[in-house]
Amino acid sequence: MTARRTPSASKRGFAAAAWLLAVVLALPAPAPAAKRLVKPSALSAFPSCASLLGYARRNARRTGGRTGVPTRAGVLDVQVLDRPVQSDALQAPGAPAPQAAEGKSVTADAPSFSQTNVQEAGVDEPDIVKADGRTVFAIADGRLHAIDVTGARPRLVGTLHLDGAYGHQLLIRGNRLLVMSSSYGGVPIAADVIIAASQVVLSEVDISDPALMRVLRTMTIEGALVDARLTGGTARVVVGASPDYIRPTAIASAPVRRFVPHTTLKSNVSGRTVRRSVVACDDVRHPRRFSGLDLLTVLTIDLDKGLFDVDRDAIMASAQTVYASTTGLYVASQRYVAALETGRSVPQRSRTEIHRFEASRTGQTSYASSGSVAGFVLNQYSLSEFDGALRIASTEEPAWFDGASRPTASPM
After folding, report:
1. Residue 293 near residue 240 (C-beta atoms within 8 A)
2. How far apart are CA 74 and CA 94, in angstroms?
3. DSSP tag of 187
4. Are 220 and 198 within 8 A, CB to CB?
5. DSSP string over 268-302
6. Is 19 helix (H, G, I), strand (E, B) or coil?
7. Spatial contact of 68 and 292, defined as CB atoms under 8 Å apart
8. How far apart are CA 281 and CA 285, in angstroms?
9. How many Cα atoms within 13 Å fall on the side-chain side of residue 173?
């Protein structure tokens, strides 16, 4: 089971009450094919790299060469269960088999093994353990272990060393595992100065023979892994990349490469190495209101084909939270705080943009629509899709004040 992060009130940057806002955002799920209406996208794409570069340089001057989106006060703690919770799906050895409901029978094709706990049925989430009914695949100490569970006792049959430094997570599809992890690559900027840039490492692993697991292809992407989802055989990996600080005197000459990072694909099948931009400039969109210089990228991977064919979509905005249904992928993005630009001591209240990507087609993802809500969302469980609408529970912190008594706004 993947550890979930929950906010720790004791580590908040200031003592203040928060308001919970229940919002229904009109980011509609697609209607049946016969009734689907084609609507214009809310966000515009850059027509060229020159246009993207002009936008990025212009707004970099506003932010003083920084990304423009601050991190909220507070620290998130990892909460880990110290023991498994008994349920019908997880029985103690020797416990009686589950009884069929009245009037129903237990069929032979019912799953004989438990899967990852997920928020939405049919949408798998990354975990450090995956299983296919015969073999359990588990991550430990940077290695992938295959354990045969078909006999009387579990038996280790294979071990594979993995690329990436930490945070390995798995998604499984047939005879393929997608391993996602993070690492740091040193970027020299002077003879004695090196910046440790964050990288995401995606590894496609052949598990057709658990005793002889092998890495087929590896892709590295500059940035940080936000989250991922698997629907059918399609994995959608969300990566957030922040440009390094740019000196004000160097903004006018900053290249596209500074704002649109690169990926490197190494294939052990063909022996080739391919390096390219993480996304084409004309596949990058930007919010109507400037939302920072971060790049939110959705990498779509058909695991039946592998990493050599990846669909790419991006928005010039930050990425904090991912939620997915069987037809849509939603990414919550914190909006740019203009008080950083103007130097005001009292910032305005926070606001979160929600971007929806169409995710109903195998191996493809496309931007669909955007909206915004007051405050921020705590985690993926603050969002859910129901009856064609996205429901959001957001939290808003009270406005800062200078000590004078002021009326308190009521929750929405």
Report:
1. no
2. 46
3. E
4. no
5. TTT--EEEEESS-GGGEEE-SS---S-EEEEEEEE
6. strand
7. yes
8. 9
9. 22
Nearest CA to 166 out of 205, 124, 129, 198 is that of 198
Max Cα-Cα span within the chain: 76
The one-letter amino acid code at 164 reads G
Give the burial class of 58: count Cβ atoms within 10 A of its Cβ; 0-12 exposed, 13-18 middle, 19 or more buried.
Answer: exposed
Residue 375: how many CB atoms within 10 A of its CB? 21
- The sign of the dihedral angle between the CA atoms of 352, 288, 347, 67 is positive
What does the block give as tokens for 380? 């993926």
pTM to 2 decimal places: 0.77
Nearest CA-CA partner of 129 in 149, 111, 107: 149
Cα angle, residue 76 at apex, residues 194 and 140 outer, rounded to 5°: 70
pLDDT digits (tens, 9 = 90+) for 257-316: 999 999 999 999 999 999 999 999 999 999 888 888 999 999 999 999 999 889 999 999
Q: Assign residue 167 a region (left: φ > 0; alpha: ψ between -120 and 50; beta: otherwise).
A: left
Decide if 55 contacts 316 (C-beta within 8 A): yes
pLDDT tens across 72-92, in order? 433 333 344 444 444 333 333
Question: Are 160 and 214 spatial neighbours (Cβ–Cβ below 8 Å)?
Answer: yes
In this structure, what DSSP letter does residue 400 have?
A: P
Cα 64 to Cα 193, 247, 250, 301, 333: the distances in Å are: 22, 8, 11, 36, 21
Could you state, in order of their start, the residue ranges of all structural domains in the chain?
23-73+117-396
Q: At CA 319, angle to CA 318 and CA 320, rounded to 5?
A: 125
Contacts of 166 (CB under 8 A, 6+ apart): 142, 181, 182, 183
